[in-house]
Amino acid sequence: MTPEEVAALLAYAGELDPRTANTDEEEARAQLRRWCELLQDVPAVAVEGWDAAAVVRRHIASSPWPIIAADVTRPWAAHRRALLARHTDPRPAVDPDDDRAYRDAIRAQRAAVATGQAAPNSTRQLTGGPAASVAARLGRVLPAAAAEQLAAYRPMRAAREAEAAAGRPDALAVACDWCHAPAGEPCRRRTLAPGAQAGTWSRRRTVHPTRTDKAAARRQESAA
Length: 224
Ligand SMILES: [Zn+2]
Description:
The protein is mainly α. The chain contains nine helices and four strands. It has helices spanning 3-16, 25-39, 52-62, 70-85, 99-114, 132-138, 144-151, 155-165, 209-223; strands spanning 45-46, 50-51, 188-190, 201-203. The strands form two sheets. Strands 1-2 form a two-stranded antiparallel ribbon. Strands 3-4 form a two-stranded antiparallel sheet. α1 packs across α2 (25-39). The protein is flat, with a radius of gyration of 20 Å. The two termini are 17 Å apart.
């Protein structure tokens, strides 16, 4: 994150949890320096739903402790590990006999995944997958025919792909303020079926409209 992004993140945290906001100017400057130092390798947003602001919001919503920079760096480290664990070094488009260029290209691909700029490539390249723009936003590649057959069993994923293909924002990339479903998880509603345990939730097939609006706003923000 750039110092500007860190400052914005801190301002956001201070808004959600006033204990985080420093009224003392000297202390506020020191806090910003600390966060900038610790978050320099953490992206504000990255592939597969990484969103530092969402991490801050989740922490404040779920923890009694004031947020510290490590509450953002730790989830990022886990997200990054998960990305790298699924990356399988696709063959780069360079002459494999050019040893040095080849290794540099592999290294660059890994660095792009490790910094959240590129989705991990977890399969050997398959033909007939979804459009590159769709695959890039969903972070995985599945042949179109297989995806079609699976669509009936994965209504949420199918809906997400349809949204992406239509160029609409991916609502699941953000958390839902209505039902508090975290980013990446479908919206939910309380199960009211007789005999159901109190407080159980069932997944909704559609997302709450406010969530779509939020995703659209977020995309506009990041495009601006
Ligand atoms: Zn919802």
